[in-house]
Amino acid sequence: MTRENPSDESAAPIDAARGSWGFPAFAKNFPADPELDALVVAFTNGNYAEVRARAPKLAASATDAAVREAAKTLEDRTKPDEAAKMLFLFAGALLAFLTVWWVLHDGPDDHGASRPATPAPTVEIVK
Questions:
Q1: Each residue's pLDDT tens digit, 1-12
Q2: Considering all CA atoms of the chain, what is the largest pairwise distance in Å, rounded to the nearest integer?
Q3: Can you tell me where the transmembrane regions are (predicted)?
Q4: Rounded to two decimals, what is the model's pTM?
């Protein structure tokens, strides 16, 4: 996508971000809009808090439908995946269950009380 005015200083951060290694592939076809470009630069730099704060405002105030969709896409990309959330909850529940199971069935012996020393086995020497 080419810019109409490449000497414009507001286009410099997006052009630098577009050439960087971390530029998101899904943002290559986003429309040219200064506010959207600032959000894409923030996303590329890892400033997801700024994207989460400004993307809904841009989506609500933008007059162009493509800019609204791009802002919603950026906002959606900062949210955790539903499957990841479910797997995280499952792992936590499994950890809690296994901890309770271990304590109830095989857990720490007498909850820290010392055991009497077991006597050494007697050895019989046969001649």
A1: 444 444 444 546
A2: 104
A3: 86-104
A4: 0.60
